Amino acid sequence: MPSAKSLFAHVLPFPGDPILSLMEAFEQDPRPAKVSLSIGLYFDEAGRLPVLDSVRQAAQALAQAGGPCGYLPIEGIAAYRQLVQNLVFGDDHEAVRAQRIATVQTLGGSGALKVGADFIKHHFPDAEVWISDPTWDNHLAILEGAGLRVQNYPYYDEVTGALRFDAMLQTLQRLPSGSVVLLHASCHNPTGVDLSRAQWEALIPVIVDRGLIPFVDMAYQGFGDGLDEDAWSVRALADAGAQALVANSFSKNFSLYGERVGGLSVVCNDAATASRVLGQLKAAVRRNYSSPPAQGARLVQQVLQSRELKEGWAEDLARMRERIKAMRASLHEALHEHFGDRRDFRFLLTQRGMFSYTGITEAQVNRLRDEHGVYLVRSGRMCMSGLSRANVRYVADAIIKVLGENQ
Ligand code: LMR
């Protein structure tokens, strides 16, 4: 029998996560023509989450091997952590060989961001974290949730759809040493607009000379231009001597969302520092969730340590990337056919990765969902990997209706 007065009366209802609540609403939607273009999930041509062949083989091998499931070490599986470093920084990177990178296995990219945020709060308590305007909603939530103060740097120009690179650089040039700058390695979420290599080359000396701490989020390695190409910025930062935190995720590129597999790597000046930093990352993990889960990391480890499985995986990933590009082209073609020069959709072709910032307003996003069952994020972010040959025409027609036939 509960006592009369609720001790939890002051607890407010959760307004819902702007992205995950759309996934829930989509699943409840009974309309057969519905299309999910909100959450960052890769769907295949048949509208299914793929099970990659390399992952299936790895799962079979693990199932056959059987064995008990004790706790993993706090920092995760040693071989997996090494494979993470090799994939993120490249096998022969000097920082890898010099053992000056501290890597822990994490619960996806979000877990890496949280452990990194706790590490920053503990060791740089007064540092402000600067995030791009706009960025993934959960960046702000995770960083503020760790008690950090967060500021925005200019990034995306709503009017032109271009990067506000000069304004971004000017802002970062004024930051005090020890400020943290959250950067997207590639496939910027939500805009799909990345820095060019020339822009990175202008940015990196500012970061190094001012003593800023880059916190790089790489959740989509392989979805932009390739596994190595998408990690170029991370490697260039390490080459230039930046001391950086790098969060990486295998949710999308292994289609292992629910396994929660990722890593946090901290690039240090030398191996002795990396060893102390690793200890403090372990302390942060232990305070959060004690130690990571095993199965997802074992799957990724199996694939990455086998030349054959790794090649198969890279080919599957290339196919996913190319399919997204083909869908970008199809949607562009359909919209261009209707609007001609009255409205420019070329951004669909130049933006990179899963997402496009469409400029579709919140009211139009609501109409797309309510009238046509086409789900975008409130900001107008569209997940291109939800498109297929079967639905792209339907989506284009819905967009045409909502944007106004006469435009
Ligand atoms: C997204 O941005 O849609 C993904 O990163 C999934 C998520 O957790 O928000």
Task: Please provide a brief summary of the model.
The chain is α/β, with parallel strands linked by helices. Helix content is 46%, strand content 12%.
Topology overview:
Layout: H1 20-28, E1 35-36, H2 53-65, H3 78-89, H4 94-97, E2 101-106, H5 108-123, E3 128-133, H6 137-145, E4 149-154, H7 165-173, E5 180-184, H8 197-210, E6 213-218, H9 227-230, H10 232-239, E7 245-249, E8 262-267, H11 271-288, H12 295-305, H13 307-339, H14 347-350, E9 355-357, H15 362-372, E10 374-375, E11 381-383, H16 392-403
Parallel strand pairs: 1-10, 3-4, 3-5, 5-6, 6-7
Antiparallel strand pairs: 2-8, 7-8, 9-11
Helix pairs in contact: 2-12, 2-13, 5-6, 5-11, 7-8, 8-10, 12-13, 13-16, 15-16
Bound molecules: (2S)-2-hydroxybutanedioic acid (LMR).
Textual characterization of the structure:
With 407 residues, this protein is α/β, with parallel strands linked by helices. Helix content is 46%, strand content 12%. The protein contains 16 helices and eleven strands. It has helices at residues 20-28, 53-65, 78-89, 94-97, 108-123, 137-145, 165-173, 197-210, 227-230, 232-239, 271-288, 295-305, 307-339, 347-350, 362-372, 392-403; strands spanning 35-36, 101-106, 128-133, 149-154, 180-184, 213-218, 245-249, 262-267, 355-357, 374-375, 381-383. The protein has a seven-stranded mixed sheet, with helices on both faces. It has a two-stranded parallel ribbon with strand order 1-10. Helix 5 (108-123) packs across helix 6 (137-145) and helix 15 packs across helix 16. The chain is globular, with a radius of gyration of 22 Å. The model has no long low-confidence stretch (mean pLDDT 96). (2S)-2-hydroxybutanedioic acid binds at residues 19, 39-40, 136, 138, 189.
